[in-house]
Amino acid sequence: MAIMTGKIPVTVLTGFLGSGKTTLLNHLLSQENAEGTAVIVNEFGAVGIDGQLVVGVDEDVIEINNGCICCTVRADLVTTVERLLSRSKPVQRILIETTGLADPAPIIQSFMLDEGLRASTELDAFVTVVDARHNPFWLSMGERAEAIGGENVVKEQIAFADLLLLNKIDLVDESELLACETELRRLNPLARIRRMRDGSVPANEVLGIGAFDLKNALAIEPELLSDVDHEHDDAITSFALRPKGDLDPTTFFRWLNRFVQGKGADILRIKGVVPFVGEARRYVFHGVHMTLDGRPGRPWRAGEPRCGEIVFIGRNLDTGEIERGIAQCGVAQAA
Questions:
Q1: Structurally, what CATH architecture does the domain formed by 8-226 represent?
Q2: Cβ(25)–Cβ(168) under 8 Å?
Q3: Which residues pair with 267 in a beta bridge?
């Protein structure tokens, strides 16, 4: 239970690429007891997609998309929080959605070591969203990275969590869920584990729970407060594309499915917002490896440019091939 200190509580949503953080965020913000929430969305690439997908609080969504807040733009995180708290509009809580590649430890450092943040905010909980379907693969990928001296970000996100939300439970059977929960308890015996589907969970089980304990974090990483720099796997790159004009949906879906089936092993994450010819609503889609999901999003506003944005995160991305493929989905080419 949260203790009243007069400081602004900060909830950090972590979870590897495609786990369902933005979907969870929208569910939380749609509930009455999430009123007065300011949102900070961080993305790995230079183009921000997730900020467009956060609903209902347009004026309180701030994007940091020129790097990851756990390393290259930690100063931006500090500045952003300070800017939020200096506004005339009161803030009851801050929700930070990290990039899927974020290591929690440096984020904790930012709030513990910066004098201004330490005086005005307090970490309420680290909430890690776990993809029940892909988590075994992500962990094995992290173990391979560890074997060659890299970081296992997936394991770090689970280990530092105060609350583990096991998402996409409808995509696996009960035996797989139990195996996943056993692995989560092995990596983090202190965190509470809750199952959820489509990111749906009561806000009072995530916000204001007062679950963060610095002693537990220090037990995981004794050098946590030494302010050691963090670096990402250089093999993982991000590529952003802004298609020009409306796309033909038939041609686009044909290309997208062919691309994902052919390159799925190298695609860690794909997400986008695109305009389709004759459609008043934007189309929102995302995928992990060979799994794709998409649906109509909010309508394009009057006078708003119908501009698409697509972000690819993965290895061995052939940007020229992707650009040519998307260009062929334009209305003129598809006609």
A1: 3-Layer(aba) Sandwich (3.40)
A2: no
A3: 314
Would you give per-residue pLDDT tens digits along the chain (335 residues)? 444 568 999 999 999 988 999 889 989 988 887 778 888 887 654 444 444 545 544 445 666 655 445 444 457 788 888 888 888 888 899 999 988 888 888 888 888 888 888 899 999 999 999 999 999 988 988 787 776 666 788 999 999 999 999 999 999 999 999 999 999 999 999 999 999 999 999 999 999 999 999 888 888 888 777 755 545 455 667 788 888 889 999 999 999 988 888 887 787 778 888 999 999 999 988 777 777 888 888 898 888 889 888 888 777 888 899 999 999 998 655 44
User: Are the CB atoms for 251 and 329 separated by under 8 Å?
Assistant: yes
End-to-end CA distance of the chain: 60
Q: What is the pTM of this model?
A: 0.72
Beta pairing, strands 281-288 & 267-274: antiparallel
CATH dotted code for 237-334: 3.30.1220.10
Q: Is 53 exposed, middle or buried (0-12, 13-18, 19+ CB in 10 A)?
A: buried
Look up residue 206 and give its amino acid: V
Token pair for 67 = 């790097």
* φ, ψ dihedrals at 130, nearest 5°: -115, 125
What is the C-alpha to C-alpha distance for residues 305 and 212, in angstroms, rounded to an integer?
42
Could you say which DSSP state residue 88 is in?
Answer: S
Would you say the C-alpha torsion 73, 75, 79, 85 has a positive or negative sign?
A: positive
Query: How many whole angstroms separate alpha carbon 172 and alpha carbon 305?
Result: 40
The residue behind tokens 């074997």 is: 147
Domain ranges of the chain: 8-226, 237-334
